[in-house]
Request: fold
Amino acid sequence: MTEFDPEDFFAPDRLEKLGRLREAGVDPYPPEFRPSRSVGAFVDEYEETEEIEDDTTHRLAGRVHRINDLGGIAFVEIEDESGSVQLILDEDTDGYEHIDELDFIDIVGAEGEAIRSNTGELSLHADSFTFLTKALKHHNPPSQSELGDKYETRAVKFWWDEVRDPVGTRYRMTRQLRRFLDDRGFLEAETPVLQNVAGGT
Reply:
Protein backbone atom coordinates (compact mmCIF):
# COMPACT_ATOMS: atom_id res chain seq x y z
CA MET A 1 0.00 0.00 0.00
CA THR A 2 1.35 3.43 -0.98
CA GLU A 3 2.05 5.64 2.02
CA PHE A 4 0.09 8.88 2.07
CA ASP A 5 2.30 11.97 1.80
CA PRO A 6 0.42 15.25 2.45
CA GLU A 7 2.90 17.19 0.32
CA ASP A 8 1.76 15.21 -2.73
CA PHE A 9 -1.70 16.74 -2.35
CA PHE A 10 -1.30 20.01 -0.46
CA ALA A 11 0.82 23.15 -0.82
CA PRO A 12 3.98 22.81 1.33
CA ASP A 13 3.91 26.45 2.43
CA ARG A 14 0.36 26.07 3.68
CA LEU A 15 1.22 22.88 5.51
CA GLU A 16 3.98 24.81 7.27
CA LYS A 17 1.51 27.49 8.32
CA LEU A 18 -0.89 24.82 9.53
CA GLY A 19 1.90 23.36 11.65
CA ARG A 20 2.79 26.74 13.15
CA LEU A 21 -0.83 27.38 14.08
CA ARG A 22 -1.05 24.05 15.87
CA GLU A 23 2.26 24.63 17.64
CA ALA A 24 0.84 27.94 18.90
CA GLY A 25 -2.19 26.11 20.31
CA VAL A 26 -4.59 27.33 17.63
CA ASP A 27 -7.19 24.87 16.33
CA PRO A 28 -7.37 25.66 12.57
CA TYR A 29 -10.56 23.60 12.26
CA PRO A 30 -12.66 24.44 15.35
CA PRO A 31 -15.87 22.43 15.77
CA GLU A 32 -18.16 25.41 16.10
CA PHE A 33 -18.49 29.10 15.26
CA ARG A 34 -21.94 30.65 15.04
CA PRO A 35 -22.18 33.90 13.06
CA SER A 36 -24.80 36.29 14.37
CA ARG A 37 -25.84 37.10 10.80
CA SER A 38 -24.75 36.81 7.19
CA VAL A 39 -22.30 39.24 5.64
CA GLY A 40 -25.04 40.49 3.32
CA ALA A 41 -27.38 41.26 6.23
CA PHE A 42 -24.58 43.17 7.98
CA VAL A 43 -23.90 45.25 4.86
CA ASP A 44 -27.60 45.91 4.26
CA GLU A 45 -28.02 47.32 7.77
CA TYR A 46 -25.15 49.80 7.61
CA GLU A 47 -24.39 50.58 3.96
CA GLU A 48 -26.59 53.70 3.95
CA THR A 49 -25.29 54.95 7.32
CA GLU A 50 -22.44 57.44 6.99
CA GLU A 51 -21.79 58.00 10.70
CA ILE A 52 -22.03 54.65 12.51
CA GLU A 53 -22.64 55.07 16.24
CA ASP A 54 -23.99 51.57 16.89
CA ASP A 55 -21.92 49.58 19.41
CA THR A 56 -23.66 46.26 18.64
CA THR A 57 -21.25 43.32 18.54
CA HIS A 58 -21.49 41.22 15.37
CA ARG A 59 -20.04 37.79 14.56
CA LEU A 60 -19.29 37.28 10.87
CA ALA A 61 -17.69 34.43 8.96
CA GLY A 62 -16.51 34.07 5.39
CA ARG A 63 -13.84 33.02 2.95
CA VAL A 64 -10.80 35.29 2.61
CA HIS A 65 -10.85 37.13 -0.71
CA ARG A 66 -8.14 39.75 -0.13
CA ILE A 67 -5.44 40.46 2.48
CA ASN A 68 -3.63 43.77 2.94
CA ASP A 69 -1.31 43.54 5.94
CA LEU A 70 0.39 46.87 6.63
CA GLY A 71 2.16 45.80 9.81
CA GLY A 72 0.27 46.63 12.97
CA ILE A 73 -2.99 46.79 11.06
CA ALA A 74 -4.48 44.51 8.41
CA PHE A 75 -7.45 44.82 6.09
CA VAL A 76 -9.02 41.47 5.20
CA GLU A 77 -11.93 41.14 2.80
CA ILE A 78 -14.17 38.14 3.44
CA GLU A 79 -17.18 36.92 1.53
CA ASP A 80 -20.00 34.44 1.91
CA GLU A 81 -22.87 33.58 -0.42
CA SER A 82 -24.65 36.83 0.48
CA GLY A 83 -21.89 39.40 -0.03
CA SER A 84 -18.48 40.66 1.04
CA VAL A 85 -17.14 43.00 3.72
CA GLN A 86 -13.83 44.28 5.03
CA LEU A 87 -12.43 43.25 8.40
CA ILE A 88 -10.03 45.58 10.18
CA LEU A 89 -7.56 43.79 12.44
CA ASP A 90 -4.98 45.52 14.60
CA GLU A 91 -2.61 44.69 17.42
CA ASP A 92 -5.48 44.85 19.92
CA THR A 93 -7.40 42.17 18.01
CA ASP A 94 -7.31 38.79 19.72
CA GLY A 95 -5.73 36.49 17.13
CA TYR A 96 -3.89 39.20 15.18
CA GLU A 97 -0.58 37.61 16.15
CA HIS A 98 -1.38 34.81 13.66
CA ILE A 99 -2.05 37.11 10.70
CA ASP A 100 1.08 35.85 8.90
CA GLU A 101 -0.49 32.39 8.68
CA LEU A 102 -3.55 33.72 6.83
CA ASP A 103 -3.99 32.92 3.13
CA PHE A 104 -6.40 33.50 0.29
CA ILE A 105 -9.53 31.25 0.53
CA ASP A 106 -9.02 30.42 4.22
CA ILE A 107 -12.32 30.58 6.09
CA VAL A 108 -12.26 32.86 9.12
CA GLY A 109 -14.57 34.27 11.76
CA ALA A 110 -14.45 37.66 13.46
CA GLU A 111 -16.33 39.44 16.21
CA GLY A 112 -16.52 43.21 16.53
CA GLU A 113 -18.37 46.43 15.78
CA ALA A 114 -19.39 48.13 12.55
CA ILE A 115 -17.30 51.18 11.61
CA ARG A 116 -16.26 53.23 8.61
CA SER A 117 -12.59 53.06 7.65
CA ASN A 118 -10.57 56.22 7.00
CA THR A 119 -11.56 55.89 3.34
CA GLY A 120 -15.24 55.53 4.25
CA GLU A 121 -15.53 51.80 3.57
CA LEU A 122 -17.98 49.87 5.73
CA SER A 123 -15.95 47.48 7.88
CA LEU A 124 -16.05 45.25 10.92
CA HIS A 125 -13.45 46.39 13.46
CA ALA A 126 -12.56 43.01 14.92
CA ASP A 127 -12.08 42.52 18.64
CA SER A 128 -11.31 38.86 17.95
CA PHE A 129 -10.34 36.86 14.90
CA THR A 130 -10.20 33.09 14.47
CA PHE A 131 -9.38 30.52 11.83
CA LEU A 132 -12.34 28.30 10.92
CA THR A 133 -10.76 26.38 8.04
CA LYS A 134 -7.14 26.57 6.97
CA ALA A 135 -7.08 25.96 3.20
CA LEU A 136 -4.21 23.70 2.16
CA LYS A 137 -4.26 24.21 -1.61
CA HIS A 138 -3.69 27.25 -3.80
CA HIS A 139 -6.70 28.26 -5.87
CA ASN A 140 -7.16 31.12 -8.30
CA PRO A 141 -10.36 32.34 -9.97
CA PRO A 142 -11.26 30.06 -12.91
CA SER A 143 -10.59 31.29 -16.44
CA GLN A 144 -13.42 31.63 -18.93
CA SER A 145 -12.31 28.42 -20.65
CA GLU A 146 -12.35 26.54 -17.34
CA LEU A 147 -15.86 27.78 -16.58
CA GLY A 148 -17.15 25.71 -19.49
CA ASP A 149 -15.50 22.38 -18.70
CA LYS A 150 -18.56 20.72 -17.14
CA TYR A 151 -17.66 22.12 -13.69
CA GLU A 152 -15.08 19.39 -13.10
CA THR A 153 -13.81 21.31 -10.07
CA ARG A 154 -17.22 22.64 -9.12
CA ALA A 155 -16.50 22.80 -5.38
CA VAL A 156 -13.88 25.45 -6.12
CA LYS A 157 -15.67 27.21 -8.94
CA PHE A 158 -18.82 27.75 -6.91
CA TRP A 159 -16.90 30.36 -4.92
CA TRP A 160 -17.12 32.69 -7.93
CA ASP A 161 -20.22 34.51 -9.12
CA GLU A 162 -19.74 33.44 -12.76
CA VAL A 163 -20.58 29.88 -11.76
CA ARG A 164 -22.76 30.32 -8.69
CA ASP A 165 -25.19 32.93 -10.04
CA PRO A 166 -26.61 30.90 -12.98
CA VAL A 167 -27.05 27.86 -10.74
CA GLY A 168 -28.82 29.96 -8.12
CA THR A 169 -31.10 31.47 -10.75
CA ARG A 170 -32.03 28.02 -12.04
CA TYR A 171 -32.77 26.83 -8.51
CA ARG A 172 -35.07 29.79 -7.78
CA MET A 173 -36.92 29.35 -11.08
CA THR A 174 -37.44 25.63 -10.44
CA ARG A 175 -38.59 26.28 -6.87
CA GLN A 176 -41.12 28.89 -8.05
CA LEU A 177 -42.42 26.60 -10.79
CA ARG A 178 -42.87 23.72 -8.33
CA ARG A 179 -44.71 26.02 -5.91
CA PHE A 180 -46.98 27.31 -8.70
CA LEU A 181 -47.95 23.80 -9.82
CA ASP A 182 -48.25 22.44 -6.28
CA ASP A 183 -50.72 25.20 -5.36
CA ARG A 184 -52.88 24.04 -8.26
CA GLY A 185 -52.96 20.40 -7.28
CA PHE A 186 -50.40 18.99 -9.69
CA LEU A 187 -48.46 15.89 -8.66
CA GLU A 188 -44.76 15.66 -9.43
CA ALA A 189 -43.56 12.20 -10.42
CA GLU A 190 -39.96 11.20 -11.09
CA THR A 191 -39.52 8.48 -13.69
CA PRO A 192 -36.41 6.80 -15.14
CA VAL A 193 -34.89 8.48 -18.17
CA LEU A 194 -34.52 5.98 -21.00
CA GLN A 195 -31.21 6.14 -22.85
CA ASN A 196 -29.56 3.89 -25.36
CA VAL A 197 -26.14 4.35 -23.76
CA ALA A 198 -25.28 2.34 -20.65
CA GLY A 199 -24.42 4.56 -17.70
CA GLY A 200 -26.16 7.59 -19.16
CA THR A 201 -23.05 9.11 -20.75
